[in-house]
Design goal:
The chain has two domains: about 5-145, Creatine Amidinohydrolase, Chain A, domain 1 (3-Layer(aba) Sandwich); about 150-365, Creatinase/methionine aminopeptidase superfamily (Creatine Amidinohydrolase, Alpha-Beta Complex), CATH 3.90.230.10. The chain is built from eleven helices and 19 strands. It has helices at about 5-25, 35-40, 60-70, 90-100, 115-130, 140-145, 150-160, 165-175, 180-195, 255-275, 280-295; strands at about 25-30, 50, 55-60, 80-85, 105-110, 135, 200, 205, 230-235, 235, 240, 245-250, 305-310, 315-320, 335-340, 340-345, 350, 355-360, 365. The strands form six sheets. A six-stranded mixed sheet has the order 4-3-2-1-5-6, sandwiched between helices. A hairpin with a 4-residue loop joins strand 18 and strand 19 (about 365). The chain binds glycine (GLY) and manganese (II) ion (2 copies).
């Protein structure tokens, strides 16, 4: 898949620049590397982007200069880009850039700047004596990223779609006598084979009682007949993350496994059916929770129903119970998130089922396409 084109970036720039006006800023300093990528296509692991009304100033060191030149010669070049070398310290280079462009009202991303870094910038700017002030901003770029544009939707669809084949390999790797880590290794090799550049998170293979731990990873437990096994994995394709969970049985599923699995699947279907524009994200959570409560599994579902997916594997919107003092998130067409209810019973195990959905004008499109059976594996 190609990177977003210059025209895609232009419309992102228009929206971020509106915030400069609203917040009365000369410049907004972006230090979060994911946000830098979203606005510029530059995907280095270091860098600073300074957004102003007429330019995108990218501060990068020698390691990324050649990649930046290549990108700028392509159809995915960042419009109005001006690159600034960073000979030594990024923050020294930032102050020099801000001074040279005459920015005095400077916003920074409060969630992505350490207190130490903030203090240094304020002290060093004061020492320059040019009246530069640093103002805290929240969620400026994240608020744009929550609704995906067409380029992102295409990438997320492709990223999620490639999990079909990986999941088939994953399910076939589950058998008595192998360790959780061996199953995880098969899944991770299948993700590479499918073309993902990396894993979106540490693969989870949680068997038997370990399946009661929602964020277990994969250990040396050997799978046994009758185990329920939670398989949770996802990859990153051209920067965009996918995330899938299926729960399977080693051999013939027990009656308890079938009952809990059916309850979680029904909860997930209810949640997916609730997804449409204008609905509160918390209503999607409530749809899943209501089903599990009715089956006596309300206490066993202790996490939220889903999270946004995009350049980060956990981003907005959060699909959770209503949070005190937090404005409810209303779903909009173009949002992409997981729907992943679960039930966790300490000592017994657990079940989670997770798919990725795109909110459409009338409801949603499920981007992942993998069978749901609690498979009675016979091999
Ligand atoms: N594996 C992390 C998640 O599903 O959110
Ligand atoms: Mn997951
Ligand atoms: Mn997830």
């Amino acid at each position: 898949m190609p990177l977003p084109l210059s025209a895609d970036l232009s419309s992102r720039h228009t929206r971020v620049r509106r915030t400069l006006d609203v917040l009365n800023l000369d410049a907004l300093v972006i230090t979060n590397t994911t946000n830098i990528r979203y606005l510029s296509n530059h995907a280095g692991s270091a860098g600073i982007l300074v957004v102003t009304a007429d330019a995108m100033h990218l501060l990068i060191d020698f390691r990324y200069e050649e990649a930046a030149r290549t990108l700028q010669a392509s159809s995915s070049a960042c419009p109005s880009l001006r690159t600034w070398p960073v000979p030594a310290s990024y923050d020294e280079a930032l102050l020099s850039c801000l001074t040279e462009i005459g920015a005095t009202r400077v916003g920074f991303e409060a969630a992505h700047v350490t207190v130490a870094r903030h203090d240094w910038l304020v002290r060093s700017a004061a020492a320059r004596g040019q009246g530069m002030t640093f103002r805290s901003t929240e969620r400026v770029v994240e608020a744009l990223r929550v609704v995906k544009d067409a380029a992102e939707t295409a990438m997320l669809r492709e990223s999620a779609g490639r999990l079909t084949k990986v999941a088939s390999t994953a399910v076939r790797a589950v058998r008595a006598g192998v360790t959780e880590r061996a199953v995880a290794a098969v899944i991770e090799a299948a993700m590479r084979e499918a073309g993902y550049e990396r894993q979106a998170f540490d693969t989870i293979v949680a068997s038997g009682p370990n399946a009661a731990l929602p964020h277990y990873r994969a250990g040396d437990r050997i799978l046994e007949a009758g185990d329920v096994v939670v398989l949770d994995f996802g990859g990153v394709l051209d920067g965009y993350c996918c995330d899938l969970t299926r729960t399977v049985s080693v051999g013939t599923p027990t009656a308890d496994a079938l009952r809990v699995h059916q309850a979680v699947r029904d909860a997930q279907q209810a949640a997916i059916a609730a997804v449409r524009p204008g609905v509160a994200a918390s209503a999607v959570d409530a749809a899943a929770r209501t089903v599990l409560e009715a089956r006596g599994l309300g206490q066993a579902f202790g996490h939220g129903t889903g999270h946004g997916l995009g350049l980060d594997v956990h981003e907005e919107p959060r699909v959770t119970r209503p949070q005190p003092d937090v404005q409810p998130t209303l779903l909009e067409a173009g949002m992409v998130f997981t729907v992943e209810p679960g039930a966790y019973l300490p000592g017994w195990g657990g079940v989670r089922i997770e798919d990725d959905v795109l909110v459409t004008e009338n409801g949603c499109e499920v981007l992942t396409s993998v069978p749901y059976d609690l498979l009675p594996l016979t091999h």
